Amino acid sequence: MGIGEDHPLDNVVWAALTTEHAWLAIGDGRARHYPRDMAPFSAVAEPTARAYADLAAGLGSGIEARLFRPYEEPTPSGWETLSARPIIQMVAQEPRASCDSASIGPLGADDVPDMLALAEVTKPGPFQARTVLLGNYIGVRESVNGRLIAMAGERFRLPGYVELSAICVHPDARRSGLGRTLTLYLMQRAFERGETPFLHVFPGNSAAILYAQLGFRERARPWVIWRRPAPIVTSRGA
User: Fold this and answer.
1) 10 within 8 A of 3, measured Cβ to Cβ
2) Do 88 and 201 contact (CB within 8 A), yes or no?
């Protein structure tokens, strides 16, 4: 089923914030926001003036709304578009292999400083101080000094689906298979719960090849669009 057929993944942030993550949602009406220290994403139910008015009401001054939209929609009146990029949405069909989970451990609130440090080095996408509360996060530490060298976790969750996110490996530990191992582990746990794992990757990211090898298939190419209310211009008399 592709974009435009009213699939929940077509408007994934809205679907998450009005179902499984509704307890986290900020805003009402036709717009929702994640807490910015969890995930810097917002959503509108549809691209209407009413929905964008509700979106603006939940934004702080000068803060942009980061949206996942099914298409590159026109900029609404009273707004400005800061960035618009297509992204590949991949959905796993079935587990492709097992993984050795012996070195994998859970990550929680006490691990956040190490997780933030790893995210700063690897740039896996937005990762904030409370992102770890969105789902299950796992990682691998060096046996000698305990340094966190790889992690992965769950971000958007909606009925029947869970997004895998923040999959990253420290440059010192790359080509060791850790990214594959962590991804497979989370995939298997999702399927065991009756959920379908999915993820997002920008075109040109070589990680898409790994995900395809693990059983992920491109479903759609939505757009990640950053918008904010346009500044109000006032005229001065002579």
Assistant:
1) yes
2) yes
Comparing CA positions, the residue from 157, 223, 167 lying closest to residue 190 is: 157
| 123 vs 137: CA distance, rounded Å | 17
52, 41, 31, 11 alpha-carbon torsion, rounded to 10°:
100
Co-location of 97 and 215 in the same domain: yes
Q: What's the alpha-carbon Rg for the chain, to the nearest Å? A: 19
Other CB atoms within a 10 A radius of the CB of residue 28 amount to 10
- The CA–CA distances, whole Å, from 133 to 35, 63, 109, 110 equal 11, 23, 8, 12
154 in any annotated domain: yes
* Range of the structural domain that residue 145 is part of: 90-219
Are 123 and 147 found together in one domain? yes
Q: What is the mean pLDDT of each run of 10 residues along the chain (238 residues)?
A: 71 98 96 97 97 95 94 96 98 75 91 98 95 97 94 98 97 92 94 96 93 95 97 62
CA angle at 221 for the pair 218 and 223, rounded to the nearest 5°? 150
* Domains: count for the chain: 2
Model pLDDT, residue 2: 47
For residue 65, the domain's CATH number is: 3.40.630.30
